[in-house]
Amino acid sequence: MINPGLMRERITIERNASGTDERGNAVDEWEEYYSCRAYANNLFGSEYYAARQAGAEQTVKLTVRYTGKLSGISTADYRLIFRGKVYDIEFIDNVRYEDNMLIIHAVSREGEINGGL
């Protein structure tokens, strides 16, 4: 278990709320789903080199406390905002399936910045 005092970073998880506009065109929209504190860490060692070979150097690992609200998030319909940048969720690890903490691996969307956070 991570010391809660180390969870200094604020992240916001957003849910895909895409739909259509009045003309029927697809609109890509995101809505805030959950906001919390996280422990942020860059990849290192073999994880870093594997990500680098896959072209995902901007990968971070974010550790958050487990909550029922996070039990249903997926890599397809959710993304997160960390330090003002948009990240795609690549992998979610419920550590030892104990429902205590989640480790979220996320990859930065190149050049995409969230204006409000």
Largest sheet: 6 strands, antiparallel, barrel
Count of individual domains: 1
What is the overall pLDDT average? 85
Proper CATH architecture: Beta Barrel
At the fourth level of CATH, the homologous superfamily is Bacteriophage SPP1 head-tail adaptor protein
Radius of gyration equals 15 Å
The strand order across the widest sheet is 1-4-5-8-7-6
The number of helical elements comes to 1
Structural class by sheet pairing and helices? mainly beta
Descriptive overview:
This protein has 117 residues and is mostly beta strands. It starts with 8 loop residues before the first strand and ends with a strand. The protein has one domain (8-111): Beta Barrel (Thrombin, subunit H). It has one helix spanning 46-53; strands at 9-16, 19-20, 26-27, 30-42, 59-65, 78-82, 85-94, 101-113.
Write the layout of secondary structure elements.
Elements (H helix, E strand, L loop, with lengths): L8 E8 L2 E2 L5 E2 L2 E13 L3 H8 L5 E7 L12 E5 L2 E10 L6 E13 L4
Antiparallel strand pairs: 1-4, 1-6, 2-3, 4-5, 5-8, 6-7, 7-8
Briefly summarize what is shown.
The protein has one helix at residues 46-53; strands at 9-16, 19-20, 26-27, 30-42, 59-65, 78-82, 85-94, 101-113. It is mainly beta and 117 residues long.
